[in-house]
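Q: I'm writing up a methods section and want to include an example of the input and output format. Could you take the sequence below and give the corresponding predicted structure tokens, formatted cleanly so I can copy it straight into the document?
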Amino acid sequence: MTETPEIVTPKIVTAAMLVIGNEILSGRTRDANMHFLAGRLTDLGIRLREARVVPDIEETIIAAVNDLRARYDYVFTSGGIGPTHDDITADCIAKAFGVGIDIHPEARRRLEAHYEAGMLNAARLRMARIPDTATLIDNPVSAAPGFRIGNVMVMAGVPMIFQAMVTSVTPSLVGGDRLLSRTVLALVPEGAVAEDLGKLQAEYPDVDMGSYPAFRSGKASTAIVLRSTDKTRLDAASEAMYAIFRRMGGEPFENEIV
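A: Here is the clean output for your methods example:
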């Protein structure tokens, strides 16, 4: 008698991203950081479960930080740590954690080393204000550091600097089981495959399945994205999806496992 393979519960580590800035909500600036962060976290076995955008309003930022840090293993913020009056993220983080904030000696030293003599004015020195108990996140691009306090990573909004800060902090992050992915596509309308896809999902509850319709060469097509930490289960579900598409008269194909 053949036993059904046991479904192993994966180790899941979660994260959220908090994008801070009126310029994002107004449409003046397009956020370019979430895609980068999601990719890096996926490589580490960390699942980005939520992304939220909030304005430069103190009470809104504080509430969002406290909500997200209580529900996810990691929180990554972007924006609001520059030299101008509307850069209030550091102060908001300090209030969210109930700690003080002041010029951090090492942050000041880095800025002094970066700017020419006499160029470190009061506005730029604001970027050295770090909440008590926080540790610095390196910024090899423009010196002004981000910081980490608890499970919250606070970083700049400028994409080049944000990416450098993410790279600096990733060695300290602890991930879970890496999520593998396969995408099976066919020139079959989504409505035609929906019922069978629902049955397949019920058969493989441990494999995440998403359906994405599009037009290819003027014809309706459907891409089914399957994700799991268990390669054996992922392969089995993908092969079953192949069979479903073929029954519908489509010739399925797929991308590489990532």
